[in-house]
Every structure is written in structure tokens, then in C-alpha cells.
Amino acid sequence: MEPKVLPSLQSGSSLAVSAKKRRKWNVDHWLSFAFILPSVIAVAVFVYGFIAWSGYVSLSNWNSLVPDLSFAGLKNYLFLFKDFRFQADLRNTLFFTLFFILAVLFMGLMLAVFLDQKIRGESLFRNIFFFPMALSFVVTGVIWQWLLNPATGVNLFLKKIGLDSLWYTSVTVIPGIQWSKIQFGVPVAVIAVVIAAAWQMTGFSVAMYLAGLRAIPEEIREAARMDGAGEFQIYRKIIFPMVAPITVSVVIIMAHISLKIFDLIYAMTGPGANFVTDVPGVYMFETTFRGNYYANGAAISIIMLLSVAIFIVPYLISSRKGES
């Protein structure tokens, strides 16, 4: 016969065990916090602290070598949105981002489908498609500057068949509708930058899409074939909808890259004649570190931050909701 345990003793022992566990959890908690504290401090100072400082400077009159942190309100922001160069930058960024994302999505998906066919020499093709990602944007810019130079490279072939070889440096804007101080439309020279950027980043979307395609069970495709679906219908109605979350991720990441692009433009074309290839990153660099207009440069950086946040923040919020 088992000895009976009094309720009071049983509850007391359980309280003691829970208290012991609570004390152990607290120690682990503070130890873990001590390990991550240096990183938290570094991020708080060198990321969020500098963002706050840039925001503060953007509201000041510091537009010379002599610091002047007197409050200027939104004067620097109003100046930028009335400025011809900044308006051109917004136009260029809009069309560069649009064409860049579309090119990366289309080429990445088509190449991933091509590799998903279990072709011979797949590893070789994968290395070829992924290799440009190992390069920096500066190297990519220099390479494509040589390739698209009006006097050399691809343009020599275009010139021989009677096509204009100066499109790389063209100031033409299509359709060129007058809007405020600029002509609104697609700058022809931006297409060259889109080609270079898409060449480098398509490998990323190929890797993402290929991983998604390989994760789809073969049984789903076999079931669709048994129901009489053709390969085109299988991809259009089954495969492509299943990789839609990957498309969203690629769009967010590519938008983040394109909105803050600097090194590729700076190495490849610079601002361009009439600022047809200029972007806010280049304008911010030249305004701040060459013109010493620190408040205007800080205002440009804050606008760039907000434009990136428009894409990133909703994506992070939806991701956290999905995990919960």
C-alpha cells in the first residue's frame, strides 16, 4: 500500500520546484542578455543612433563646413522636391526599380524552370548563372561600362547593322511628358543600367525559385498529368501559384537593392548628362561629401530610408504574423 501524501506537503513541494525553476530561468535569462548586450548597444548607436542624427541634421541649417544646427524645419525637404536634379532622381529610380524587378523575376523564373528539367550539365549552368552574384556592383559597373561603350563592345555590332550606338549615353526620355521641371518618362540610358543590374542579381532569383520548385512534391505533378493537364497548365495553375511567396520575397529584396543603389551607377555611368542616370544615392554622396551641404544630404538619406521602409516594414509585419 502506497503512503498518502498530504495536500499541503504536495503543494509545498511543487511550489519549491517551480520557484527553483524560476530562479534557474532568471539566471539563464540574464546570462543570455549579457551575451547579446554588446550587439544591442552597437546596433542602437551605429544604426538607430545615426539614423536619428541624420534626421536631426536634415532639419537644420548645416549646409557648409561650419556646423549650424539651428532648426530649419522642412526647408531642406521642400528644396529637394522643387529641385530639378532630385525630381530626375525620383523618375530614374521609379523606372529603374520597375524594370529591374521585372527583369530579375522573369529571367530568374525562366532559368529556374530550365534547370528544374534535370538537364545534363546542370551544375555547370548553375555556376554560370550564380557567378555574377560573387562580383561587387563596382566590378559589374566597370565591366558593363566597357561592354556598352559607344566606341567599343556591343555597340560596334549595333553600329554595323545600322542601329544607334549612342543609346548608352542618350539623354532621350520616352515619351518625355513635361512634369514640373523634368520630362517624365523612361530615360533610354537607364536601360543600360537595368541590364547590368539584372545580369548580376538574376542568379539570386534563380536560386530562390529553384529551391521552391525542388520543394514541390513530384506527386502533385503526377496527379495533374493523370487528370489530363499539360505541362504548360501544370506550371500556370499549380507550380507558379505555389512559388508566389518566393516571388514576394524576391520583389522585396530587389526593391530594397534598387531603391538604395549607388555603387553600380557611380562606377558605370555616374549622374549622366542631364541627370538621366542619376539616383538619390549618388546625389546624396555628391551633395554631402563634395558640396558640403550636410543638411540637404541628410534629407536625401532620410527620404531613401523611408522609401525602403515602405517595402520592408509591411513585409516584416506580415512575416511575423505568419509565424505567430
Automatic annotation (TrEMBL):
PROSITE patterns: ABC_TM1. Residues 90-317 form the ABC transmembrane type-1 domain. Pfam families: BPD_transp_1. It is a multi-pass membrane protein. The keyword Cell cycle does not apply. Its main location: membrane. The chain crosses the membrane at residues 30-53, 94-115, 127-147, 188-217, 238-259, 293-317. It comes from the Bacteria. It is found in: Cell membrane. Keywords: Cell membrane, Membrane, Transmembrane, Transmembrane helix, Transport. PANTHER family: ABC TRANSPORTER PERMEASE PROTEIN. Belongs to the binding-protein-dependent transport system permease family. This is Sugar ABC transporter permease. It comes from Fictibacillus fluitans.
